[in-house]
Design goal:
globular, about 70% helix, about 0% strand
């Protein structure tokens, strides 16, 4: 049996081998057959053979040996060049791409040689076209290792033929196309002068050709070639083109040279920055037509003007810095040519007083094409369109010119919205929308000038829009959509102003919503406008206008298309608050109309999810605002909402709706659905849906606060059983909501305390042991404890709670970070308890700090608890000399005890200012060794009381009595930085509560001879505006420059203080510094540079280290730049900003480098063209960062820092690579190929790129 099995195995193996041999022979045989058929005279055979070959070439397993390559290549070339049948030739063209991928570089070279020869010698146009197409296919599809053939074989032959005067115009056109394709595909191969200079020379000659086609192809070729040129040669090319445009007497050559400049601007526009003084004037001159005389070919001139505006548009975007001097001229030019229409006198046609001459009485009966003055040959509309687009780019990129643009551009755009050509009109709308968006941004940043200018023009805008919508001829849908899209932007920028002029728009709104022929997009856009109008300016709308649009809106609610219905429901939701309140008597009928169309949508089960959700939201708003007007319908709505609560798809929306209804100022009775709803909401707390849990807890909290229903008490235990597991340090937000609900339950139902003690309090104690407990979660623990004590529940009152928390505080393994939270709990409990009950606890804490046997933990805890209690009650009523006992702790060796004592003393003073604050001020003056700690106590007093207006007067009086504000500046003369910082905070916060007096003193100190005075006064501004205070901001605005002048102070520390203050202002109150940016940005930039005078050598044993005293200033300066980038970038010169940012990329500090990488990444997304313009200077420092590795002996920390630096650099590189036009920089391309995509960096780059494309959850930059 073993021999038999071995025989079977042998037979199987032999069969497999024989099959493989036969199949291999069959493949070779088939290929031979295919090649034979490709040479037959019958075109059908040739077509089928080419099809079979194409199918084989597409297979990955299909291979060719050297002889087969030659045969297949020759056969395909023959069909390409000599074939008369178009179908066969097309199949051969399809074969060429896959074939090039499979043949060797040598065979690719043979194919190129043959095709070039065919291109030059083919007699028929078809043959030249095929050869040209084939060459372009090879260029695109060839293997990377064969790409060198482009410059070694292809381009030299093409250039040689191009230079031959005997070469026909037709061949030259094809040569130029092939060259353009080659340069576009492999720009790096053409980056050396030896390669591109011959091409440039020959193509420039073709730019002066008599044939338009040749000039056009030469323009495209030079535009593509410009990307690869070195700077000197690029500048030389531009000079040649500009001189050609200036000196040539031929209109055609002038046009071609300008068009070439335009082509260069689109392919490598950022490189034109250095040539702007040459380029911009000639382009502007040609756009004006000063170099041209209107001749028989007027369309050519209009085409040139269009190209000029396209070039200017490109320059505005790609060269934002160097184009600035010409922006005023460009803007004026755009405003002139946006109305350029030589075939149409709009002013005469639109004149209301225009009278018909004899014979023109039947003007209305003229055909449309007659009154439009338009025909297929009129291309002036292209000029207007290009001018509009250029103007739009100026608006988008130059927000620093917004005030000027509002004054000059707005009136022009208002006139042009009535443009007769549809495509131009839509572009005018887009340009106007861009202006309105910029105005919106300026409003958000606090500017008022642009908004005021716009509001003055609102009546004129509405008037023009009304004219458009009232035109007698049928208005196209795209235009109507564009009108309402423009109105959307207008209502967001000037909602109050537009509300008073809506009456004239109402008929057109109604028509757009009710017209049977209106498209869904038009209806949706109109409804979106109405939604914004009601949301932002509804309160200023006239009653009649609202009533007139109600019926059309209700019709849209009943529309069959779900998107229209959902948008109409959103409009109703926005309308309901407008028609409620004091205006409700006027809109009772409107309320019923909305209800009648809303109810069917609310009931329907078989409608789109979006409609269901919007119907529920709208119902909730209707009930919340006008529920009492619904009568019996209210009960019906409640029943439907109760049903929707049980539906998995609609339950989240319904939970939020019930929350809204329960919060209604109408105090609606929800008893019909209350208990069942609470039961369902309780069940939701068990589900693994965080958003649903949050909404359920919020709704339950409102239920227990607003609904006084005894039946709720029966739901408390099952509810708290589900609430308890949610109280955890793992999710503080859910914990906060759960504790908030528990506090509401305890307050409304005191009898629930036993359940709270059993289920919730153990969770609270566990949460108090968390190091991360803070914010709302802690506040709600305090609120819950306050509510529990207020119930006076036996066995679960002050004694039980304080003992439990004290036991917690006595745990040795309790983290010190938990002490402040527990101390606040003790403070709340003592404040809520009676004097008799808390006396023992207070005595215990006093004994702890008085006893010499107390350990550090006991002392710190007692001091914190005394402070928290003293903040809430007057501690002196219990212990008369408590301040002396606390101040003794300043002598302790433990820093923890000292800090706790400072906190405690400050908070004691909050409880009794008249007794304890004078003590603190006296101690500060008398004990310099305790000055820092006592100043911390004073800071605690000022900070706490600045938020309680009723006690501010008492605080100010005591401070004035002791002349403390003057004394504070004396304390800042200390050499200790900590004291200066605390003094600055105290001074700043005092300025908030005693504004006029303190601000005057701060201003005086800014010019003090003492550097500490200047630094402290400057730093105080941060605390003056830490909270919103319009009074102090109004006083500060004209004084801000006095603080910022310190950016040029002679002292390093003062400049750092000014940088930090500037950074704080830019981040929190950017409107205060907008007008000063031009003056102070150079000072910030100066601080980003390394200062050799601040470098000093320090000897450490046998080693000498260089210490950089300016490093902190540089870090502060770059942090300031980062903040400016986030808040004020539109007010900065981005190119200048980036040029100084590049210096940071090469800084010695890894922290500064990382910060600059992040800024480059952000700028690549928001200001891509400016980054591309500076790309050549950015590349080198990035290369150094990636290539400079730590020494082998480097410690682990240094290696980790290097890896993080590489990652931040790669993130910046990925962002740069995504900028359109980044590949036009040859230096960047070389850097990517030689550094980023090679070696070990390649793996990191690819991993980072994949993470970026998948949406890295740790990437917070998007």
């Amino acid at each position: 049996s073993e021999r038999a099995s071995e025989g079977d195995l042998f037979l199987r193996l032999f069969s497999c081998w024989l099959f493989a041999v036969v199949m291999g022979y069959q493949t070779a045989f088939n290929l031979t057959s295919v090649l034979e058929k490709m040479g037959r005279s019958d075109p059908d055979y040739r077509f089928m053979a080419a099809s079979d070959l194409l199918a084989e070439l597409k297979k990955d397993t299909f291979k060719l040996d050297s002889s087969q390559e030659k045969k297949v290549g020759a056969a395909v070339l023959k069909l390409l060049v000599e074939e008369l049948s178009g179908d066969v030739q097309t199949q051969a063209q399809h074969c060429l791409g896959p074939l090039v991928k499979k043949v060797t570089a040598a065979q690719t070279g043979v194919l190129i040689d043959n095709l070039v020869e065919s291109l030059f010698t083919a007699d028929k146009t078809n043959g030249r076209d095929s050869a040209s197409y084939a060459l372009k296919t090879i260029i695109i599809e060839m293997q990377p290792q064969a790409s060198s053939l482009i410059t070694s074989k292809l381009t030299p032959k093409l250039c040689e033929k191009l230079s031959d005067t005997a070469t026909s115009y037709e061949v030259k056109v094809e040569i130029l196309e092939v060259l353009t394709a080659a340069i576009s595909q492999y720009p790096n191969l053409f980056s050396t002068p030896a390669v591109y200079n011959p091409i440039k020379a020959e193509v420039l000659k073709e730019l002066e050709s008599r044939r338009k086609n040749n000039r056009k192809r030469a323009t495209q070729c030079l535009g593509t070639l410009a990307v690869s040129m070195e700077s000197n040669d690029f500048n030389e090319l531009i000079s040649v083109l500009v001189n050609m445009a200036k000196t040539s007497t031929s209109h055609e050559i002038i046009r071609s040279s300008i068009q070439t400049i335009g082509s260069v601007s689109r392919s490598a526009g950022f490189r034109l920055a250095d040539c702007m003084e040459q380029v911009a004037p000639i382009v502007i001159t040609c756009a004006k037509g000063e170099h041209l005389t209107r001749d028989e070919d007027e369309d050519e001139d209009d085409e040139l003007r269009e190209n000029c505006f396209q070039t200017l548009e490109s320059l505005v975007v790609r060269c934002p810095n160097t184009i600035s001097p010409y922006l005023e001229s460009i803007t004026s030019l755009c405003l002139e040519y946006i109305k350029y229409d030589p075939n149409y006198n709009e002013d005469a046609m639109m004149d209301d007083d225009f009278e018909m001459e004899d014979g023109f009485e039947d003007f209305d009966e003229w055909e449309e094409e007659d009154i439009d003055y338009s025909d297929d040959e009129d291309v002036s509309w292209k000029v207007r369109k290009a001018a509009s687009k250029t103007l739009a780019e100026i608006i988008r990129t130059r927000s620093d010119m917004l005030n000027q643009l509002c004054d000059t551009v707005t009136p022009a755009l208002i006139k042009r919205v009535t443009e007769r050509e549809e495509t131009v009109k839509l572009d005018v709308f887009k340009t106007f929308s861009a202006l309105l968006k910029q105005i919106q941004r300026s409003i958000n940043l606090g500017a008022t000038g642009p908004q005021k200018s716009l509001e003055e023009n609102v009546p004129a805008i509405i008037n023009q829009i009304t004219k458009i919508l009232s035109e007698k001829k049928e208005l196209k849908t795209k235009v109507r959509i564009g009108v309402f899209s423009l109105l959307k932007e207008l209502v967001q920028a000037a909602s109050r102003s537009i509300s008073g002029h809506v009456e004239s728009l109402v008929p057109h709104i109604t028509a757009a919503l009710c017209d049977k022929n209106a498209t869904s997009n038009l209806k949706i856009e109109t409804l979106a406008f109405l939604r914004l109008l009601f949301t932002l300016g509804g309160l200023h709308l006239a009653t009649d206008s609202i009533k007139q649009v109600t019926e059309p809106i209700c019709c849209c609610v009943s529309d069959n298309y779900y998107k229209i219905t959902s948008e109409a429901l959103r409009v109703c939701s926005a309308m309901v608050p407008v028609i409620s309140g004091t205006r409700l008597p006027e809109f009772e009928q409107t309320v019923q109309e909305i209800y009648q169309v809303l109810l069917p949508k609310l009931k329907a089960q078989d409608i789109d999810q979006e409609v269901k959700e919007e119907a529920i939201n709208c119902t909730a708003l209707l009930i919340t605002n006008v529920g009492e007007k619904l009568g019996g319908g209210l009960t019906e709505c409640f029943a439907i909402l109760e049903d929707r609560l049980g539906n998995e798809i609609t339950r989240l929306t319904t939970v939020k709706a019930l929350d809204l209804i329960a919060c209604s100022p109408l105090h609606l009775d929800l008893s019909s659905i209350l208990i069942n709803s609470v039961g369902q909401l309780t069940g939701f707390l068990r589900l693994n849906n965080r958003q649903l849990k949050q909404s359920s807890l919020n709704t339950l909290n409102v239920f227990f606060k607003s609904q006084k229903n005894g039946e709720l008490e029966e739901t408390i235990r099952p509810l708290l059983e589900n609430v308890a597991p949610l109280i955890s340090a793992d999710d503080l937000h859910l914990s906060h909501l759960a504790l908030q609900l528990t506090a509401s339950i305890t307050t409304s139902f005191p009898g629930s305390c036993k359940v709270v003690k059993e289920l919730i309090f153990p969770q609270v104690l566990a949460l108090l042991q968390s190091k991360v407990l803070q914010g709302h979660a802690l506040e709600n623990i305090l609120e819950l404890l306050r509510a529990i004590v207020a119930t006076r529940t036996t066995g679960f009152g002050f004694t039980y709670l304080s003992k439990a928390i004290n036991n917690l505080l006595s745990k040795k393994d309790l983290s010190k970070k938990c002490y402040p939270a527990c101390a606040q709990c003790i403070g709340v409990l003592c404040a809520a308890a009676s004097e008799k009950k808390r006396a023992g606890v207070l005595t215990g804490y006093i004994n702890q700090i008085s006893s010499e046997t107390s350990n550090e933990q006991q002392t710190v805890v007692s001091l914190l608890c005394i402070g928290e209690i003293g903040r809430r009650i007057d501690f002196s009523t219990h212990t008369n000399n408590v301040e002396e006992l606390v101040s003794k702790s300043f002598s302790a060796q433990s820093e923890e005890i000292k800090s706790a004592a400072a906190f405690s003393l400050g908070n004691l003073a909050v409880g009794n200012l008249s007794k304890f604050l004078p003590f603190i001020l006296k101690e500060i003056a008398e004990h310099k060794e305790r000055q820092y700690l006592l100043l911390l106590s004073l800071r605690e007093v000022i900070t706490r009381l600045s938020k309680t207006p009723d006690r501010v007067a008492e605080l100010v009086q005591i401070l004035q009595t002791h002349k403390s504000s003057d004394a504070l500046f004396q304390y800042c003369q200390s050499s200790k930085e900590g004291i200066c910082n605390v003094v600055a905070e105290c001074v700043g916060r005092l300025a908030v509560i005693n504004t006029q007096e303190m601000l005057e003193k701060i201003i005086i100190k800014l010019s003090s001879d003492s550097s500490q005075d200047r630094s402290t006064a400057c730093a105080s501004i941060k605390f003056c505006i830490v909270d919103k205070n319009s009074e102090i901001e109004k006083l500060l605005l004209p004084k801000v420059h006095l603080f910022l002048d310190l950016l040029q102070d002679s002292e390093v520390d003062v400049r750092r203080s000014a940088l930090l203050a500037f950074n704080f202002l830019v981040h929190n109150r950017p409107a205060l510094v907008f007008e000063y940016l031009d003056k102070y940005m150079p000072m910030v930039y100066q601080e980003t540079k390394e200062n050799a005078q601040l470098l000093r050598k320090v000897k450490v044993g046998p080693f000498t280290h260089i210490v950089d005293d300016g490093l902190e200033n540089r870090k502060a300066a770059f942090e300031c730049m980062y903040t400016l980038m986030e808040t004020c970038l539109n007010h900065l010169n981005v190119s200048t900003f980036i040029s100084h940012l590049v210096g940071g990329l090469d800084d010695n500090s890894a922290d500064i480098k990382s910060m600059c990488h992040i800024m480059i990444e952000h700028l690549a997304k928001s200001e891509g063209p400016a980054v591309v313009q500076a790309l050549d200077s950015i590349v080198e420092p990035l290369r150094v960062t990636l290539e400079k590795k730590p020494k082998e002996s480097a410690v682990k920390q240094d290696k980790e820092r290097y890896e993080e630096l590489v990652r931040s650099a790669l993130r910046a590189i990925i962002a740069i690579a995504h900028i359109p036009g980044a590949d036009s920089s040859t230096k960047f391309n070389d850097f990517m190929n030689s550094t980023v995509q090679s070696g070990e960096i390649r793996e990191k780059y690819l991993a980072m790129k994949e993470s970026h494309s998948n949406g890295d959850p740790m990437d917070l930059t998007n």
